[in-house]
Design brief:
about 180 residues
Amino acid sequence: MNLFTYILLIIIAVCIILIWYISIYNNYQNYIIRMNEAESFIDNTLRKRFDLLNKSIDIIKNVTNTKKDVLNIIKDLKSVKLSNFDLDRKLYEAINEFNGLKEANEELKNNESFLKVDLGLIESEAEIVAARKYYNDIVTDYNKLVRSFPSNIVAKISRYKTKTYFDGKNMEDDDTKDFKL
């Protein structure tokens, strides 16, 4: 074999490695784009839920003729910057309070505006459940790619790390308190 053959074999090997790297890198980009789209949808749905709960404060005050602060959790959320994970948890608490007020007040059950808000919250709950599942499925596939050989080589080169699921539980730490229901 002459020098030309060795150079040609090296060039072919480098091209094969480069094609392999680009292919796996594009897989990562596909997962990242899908995660970002799912996160955007979750963010929009959370904003919708926040707006509905915020709208319900005035309705509750007007219908029940109460002067006390209703849904304090929503009022507190206006002044704090939260991640989607934390906002989802806080909105869940606010919706529980909202449902408690709904059950305790007969006037609210007969108010058309309140019932529209309630229906919007029910619809948004279905949307957020589906979006969480979709996001978590994508994160599962992405994390498998980050951890499995040979794609973990591309992950190390590109500095990709495993992602947490939307429920905010970190499976890699020793903190078991984040698994409370």
